[in-house]
Amino acid sequence: MNPTDSRTVVERIRASTRGRHAELEGTPFSAAMLAGTLPLDRYVDQLAAYRTVLDALEGELSRAGAPCVTSVWSADLVKIPCIDRDLMHFAEDGVFPGSRAGAPAVAFAREVRAAAASDPLALLGFLYVLEGSTMGGMILRRYVAEAYGLRDTDGVAYYASGDRERWARFTARLDEALPGRAEQDGVVTAAGRAYHHIAAISAALSTGLGAAAAQNAA
After folding, report:
1. Closest among 206, 182, 190, 159 to 45, alpha carbons compared
2. Which of 8, 55, 70, 143 could pair with 175 in a Cys bridge, judged by C-beta atoms 3.0 to 4.6 Å apart?
3. What is the pLDDT of residues 82-109, one digit of tens each?
4. pTM of the entire structure?
5. Residue ranges per domain, the chain?
6. According to the 3-state scheme, what is the secondary structure of the chain?
């Protein structure tokens, strides 16, 4: 690493995770979502998996005492109520989460809790990636709503929670809280780990998807 690197932590995270982001977009799960062919149970399973992760992450962030963390984390970043609304919407139609992505979601949550005890700043790297997922959701929301015949924010509250102004405020706080390279390193590494776990969740949700899609097409 170049000790004279003057990039902000957000710039470093973007650069280091660009390839991982592209790989996620190429998974069968993501391709099916964009094509409008993703089975509804896979979408509901993703919501449940993310809820497992966010339950750990938001809980640890709310309890964190490190000044750098408390200066970045704010109540308007909470996403669990949005996911709960989505899961409740589908439950009313008789669609409930399965265990397809349960194991990788639990593994991610376990790492979040371990990081909270050993390196609380790492929570900000995890948060960057999860908060960023809702920004992509601003685009995905339309595909999901069309695929499942959803109206307004029914079933898409999580994806509809993306907000460009809130994202700008969040990233500005993150850059301000972590001006030093030494502080940034763990956060950049944690963001990479977050992508690793999300890729595992996506892989679990992609299993057998090609065969299922072919069967539906037939």
Report:
1. 206
2. 8
3. 999 999 999 999 999 999 999 999 999 9
4. 0.92
5. 36-206
6. CCCCCCCCHHHHHHHHHHHHHHHHHCCHHHHHHHHCCCCHHHHHHHHHHHHHHHHHHHHHHHHCCCHHHHCCCCHHHCCHHHHHHHHHHHHHCCCCCCCCCHHHHHHHHHHHHHHHHHCCCHHHHHHHHHHHHHHHHHHHHHHHHHHHCCCCCCCCHHHHCCCHHHHHHHHHHHHHHCCCHHHHHHHHHHHHHHHHHHHHHHHHHHCCHHHHHHHHHC
